[in-house]
Amino acid sequence: MRNLRHIVYDLLIEKGFAEHTAKYLNMLALLIALLLVAFIIDYVTKRLLWRFFSGIAKRTKTNFDDILISNKLPRNIAHIIPLIILIEFVPQVFSDFEYAENIIEKVLKIVAILLTLRIIRSFLNSIKDYLKTLARYKDKPIDSYIQVFLIFIWLLGVFAIFSILTGVTFIKFALTLGTASAVILLIFKDTILGFVASIQVSINDMVRIGDWITFEKYGADGDVVEINLATVKVQNWDKTITTIPTYALISDSFKNWRGMMASGGRRIKRSVIIKTSTIKFLTDTDIEELKKIQLVSKYLENASASIAKYNATHHADKSVLINGRNLTNFGVFRKYLQTYIENHSAINKDMTLMVRQLEPTPQGIPMEIYAFSSDIRWQNYEYIMGDIFDHVLASVKYFDLEIYELAVASPQV
């Protein structure tokens, strides 16, 4: 081995070169030859591995091997053999330069650690991308878990590199860092909080990718498109992106609309205020006129017969309208709206459905519709609600009722 190692050196000495110069030129020639061999082996290995993985990818049904290729795992693995060759033969190249040999060996060990980290990262990213293609994992914060593993692996790598540079053993170096744990906790506070938060979010199923959330504190109102260790990205309805700290999901209050989306109905809860002065008892003439409205005609017939029987039994003096039992235009209007909502094609009949009278206000008495649309899509929901209240506003006058409108005094000239 020594003859092979010093073949150039011997030739140069025979040619009359100085010993010092011959050593440098010998080292340079061996280094170029070693790098050339390593480059060729790297190229050949890379091509062979690429063909091997591509062949497997074509023959298998799963797309995991395709993802491995796209994340450059074969290319990173191909660097292992050339690196081993360099580590093995560098001591031979720098045998006459001990100081340089130690430095190069440390550099190559650090490169080996970085290459290992790259291979692990490619593999973990491949797992992440593959899991995202599976339906049962699409709404899970896979990014958070992969990032936790990567941070842990990178910390081990950094510790190993410092151990090589300082000459301190890995275990001793790690124990020394334990004394500085308070500083480490301070530096990685957000990461630790994000890690804890992502676990709690996942375990409690608070947020999934694809959920519609409203987070007023951060101005977020839209779909969750990404959950990672530090942040949650929300695409708002105007297509802007809002970034929320992951730990804010457990420390602050937000609204998740998933329950509404899963229920098959979106709540309609809106009221109109009726002027109190327009509410009145109905006379027989009023009732006959309202019977022309088909949705309440049957109700009025039954209610009128029941009330007439009651008033006759109790000898109610109907010369004064307030005596006995009576129908009001407000009550008939409420019954009309109830029937109208029950017959509306866009209302979910399996969920709560009612028209109710709310507590009187200084402006009047609110009449509220409480129901759920069968279409939960925002645009269609707004159309359904608008269609219902268009009808409500237009139908009020048929019952001799008026909707409260704030009167604004005209400016004095």
TrEMBL record:
Entry's localization field: Cell inner membrane
Membrane topology listed for this record: Multi-pass membrane protein
UniProt cross-references to Gene3D superfamilies, sorted A to Z: 2.30.30.60
A GO MF term: mechanosensitive monoatomic ion channel activity
Keywords assigned by UniProt, alphabetized: Cell inner membrane, Cell membrane, Membrane, Stress response, Transmembrane, Transmembrane helix
GO biological process, one term: cellular response to osmotic stress
Stretches that traverse the bilayer: 24-44, 145-164, 170-188
Domain Mechanosensitive ion channel MscS: 190-258
GO cellular component, one term: plasma membrane
Main localization of the protein described in the UniProt heading: membrane
Superkingdom of this protein's organism: Bacteria
PANTHER family xrefs: MINICONDUCTANCE MECHANOSENSITIVE CHANNEL YBDG
Name of protein: Mechanosensing system component YbdG
Record organism: Winogradskyella flava
Source organism phylogeny: Bacteria, Pseudomonadati, Bacteroidota, Flavobacteriia, Flavobacteriales
